[in-house]
Amino acid sequence: MKSLMTLITQIFTWWNGQTLGTRFWTWRKGELVGQDELGNTYYRARNTPLGERRWVIYNGYAEASAIPSGWHGWMHHTVDTPPTEEDYAPKEWQQAHRANPTGTADAYRPKGSTINGGRRERTTGDYEAWTPGA
């Protein structure tokens, strides 16, 4: 039953896992490069007319911010060596991944926003609306 739901999901959605086209391309040309701590899998295809192609199949919803910093450089051709082929360790200033909270209850809502309610504090230099004839 799960495989049938997976197939239906791949036919009708592009944001949840991979589509049938991506599955076929991955099967035909893809070389598995590695997997990150979030369960995303990374592939590459060499010898394409445009050079090496790199792609990710997300574990769940396709959220570009769900690519850890070590893989981000490889995905964007900033570095040629994927984290699986080197002794990669995050720098001390690099933070762990945090999902983008936009559109969720955890989103930032400043004081005075329509959802948060209240009024924002008046600041110095706040503009004053123009009134005709004033």
Provide an overview of this structure:
- The chain is α+β, with helices and mostly antiparallel strands.
- The protein has a domain at 16-85.
- Helix content is 21%, strand content 11%.
- The chain is built from three helices and three strands, in the order H-H-E-E-E-H.
- The chain has helices at residues 2-12, 20-29, 69-75, and strands at residues 31-35, 41-45, 53-57.
- The chain has a three-stranded antiparallel beta sheet, with no helix packed on it.
- The longest helix has 11 residues, at 2-12.
- The radius of gyration is 22 Å and the shape is elongated.
- The relative contact order is 0.10.
Mean pLDDT: 81
Order of helices and strands: HHEEEH
Q: What spatial order of strands do you see in the largest sheet?
A: 1-2-3
- Helix/strand class: alpha+beta
Give the radius of gyration.
22 Å
Helix content: 10-25%
**How would a crystallographer describe the biggest sheet?**
3 strands, antiparallel
User: Count of DSSP E strands?
Assistant: 3
Head-to-tail CA distance between termini: 72 Å
Instruction: Indicate the overall shape.
Output: elongated
Amount of beta strand: 5-15%
The count of helical stretches stands at 3
Low-confidence stretches: none
